[in-house]
Amino acid sequence: MSLWKLVRLNFGRHPVHFGEVGIGIEETAERIRSDTLFSAWITAYVRLFGTDAVEDLLAEFRASPPVRMSSTFIYQQLGEMVLYYLPRPLIHPRNYPTGDDLGFAKMYRKLGYLPLTIWQRWYQGEGFTEGDRVELEATANSGQGGVPGELHEARTFEYGKTYQKHKLPKVAIDRLTHATNFYHTGLVTFAQAPDYSGLYFLLKFRTENPELENRLYAAFQLLGETGIGGERSSGAGLFQVDCWSDLPPDWQQVVSFQEENSYCLMSLFWQSSFASELSHELENHSYYEFRERGGWICSPFSGQQLRRQNVKMFIEGSVFPFVPGGELADVTPARFKSHQVYRNGIGLSLPIK
User: Fold this and answer.
1) From CA 246, how far away is CA 213, in angstroms rounded?
2) 182 and 171 in contact (C-beta within 8 Å)?
3) 184: which residues sit within 8 A by CB, 6+ positions away?
4) How far apart are CA 34 and CA 293, in angstroms?
5) By the 8 A CB rule, do 162 and 191 touch?
6) What pLDDT tens digit does each residue of the chain (353 aa) get?
7) CA proximity to 156, closest of 230, 88, 206
8) Are the C-beta atoms of 76 and 255 separated by less than 8 Å?
9) Angle at which helices 210-226 and 34-49 pack, to 10 degrees?
10) Strands 262-265 and 342-344, bridge-based pairing
11) How far apart are CA 282 and CA 145, in angstroms?
12) φ, ψ for residue 236, nearest 5 deg
């Protein structure tokens, strides 16, 4: 058994709704972050295996995480080839040109996600090349395809074509007054034939653990049937587990890179002791952003509708000179007594140079 697993979720024609803190239901993200993915898994896990099993599992996560989970990112099936997009690290790659070309800089910043081949070359290989500069400048100046080159061949500029956002009109009726309220819900649908898209994520087990892997797989099968994210009552979020396998060779090269001097987050990351123990390290060679994570409690054991406590986490693409460990954040509201509520801040990172 390999310690690393690659999982692909195929949503087909089913839409998805992935909300963010501070964003109304009219807006939606195209992917789901690691803390929400973990919470959905735990909810399915307790339905399959019971409260005692999930309490034992969470105790293990608090002591020493048996598995680390990345956030989801977009993949695209192109015939027999699969293209994976990764979050661009928040640090320039080696050989990145300096200058005052604002058009070039804006075009670079638009690349929030990079194909695996480009990500590996920029952050584990030779770095940024003169050809990359020419392509980015030409694309920025033309506003269209620019000049052909490695970036275009790898579909670096086509991330936005892998999904579509749209708004679904709805009407809410007040139960007492029967007054109506018209509103919109934001939904995302992934590209279909001839090339289709979906979401993937990575798992890294601490040790070989076939029992936990089988239970994890079973929980995701249940999630596929019940849906993930919002608007599930309208049929959103349904998926099939398209792939659950060891890493293919190109991914094996990425995770086994041996010349690293930094680590790029592929998940959210939170650590309670960061203020006292990590503050010095964060001042040196760290490039990061925070995101506040909150939302509502979704518990099968309580009818209460309460907001969980907000917590700030480092986001995907943040770069540190150390391996980000992380832990579960206790976000239980003061008035919620049914059980503890956690957000997953356990980090999963990839080595970079």
Assistant:
1) 12
2) yes
3) 25, 26, 167, 168, 169, 170
4) 11
5) yes
6) 579 999 999 999 999 988 765 555 567 889 999 999 999 999 999 999 998 999 999 999 999 999 999 999 999 999 889 999 999 999 999 999 887 677 788 889 999 999 999 999 999 999 999 999 888 888 877 765 556 789 999 999 999 999 998 877 666 777 777 777 766 778 899 998 888 999 999 999 999 999 999 999 999 999 999 999 888 887 889 999 999 999 999 999 999 999 999 999 999 999 887 655 556 666 667 888 988 776 666 655 555 566 666 788 999 999 999 999 999 988 776 666 666 778 899 999 999 99
7) 88
8) no
9) 100
10) unpaired
11) 39
12) -80, 155
| Cα-Cα-Cα-Cα dihedral sign, residues 208, 327, 86, 76 | positive
Report the b/e string of 31-47 with b at 16+ CB within 10 A. Answer: bbbbbbbbbbbbbbbbe
Helix, strand, or coil (residue 185): strand
Token pair, residue 350, equals 């990839």
Tokens (6 digits) for 162: 């892998």
Cβ atoms of residues 304 and 336 within 8 Å: yes
Structure tokens that stand for 118 in this block: 């480009």
Tell me: the pLDDT tens digits for 278-334?
566 666 678 889 887 766 666 555 555 666 667 889 999 999 999 999 999 887 766
Of 296, 351, 345, 343, nearest to 322 by C-alpha is 351
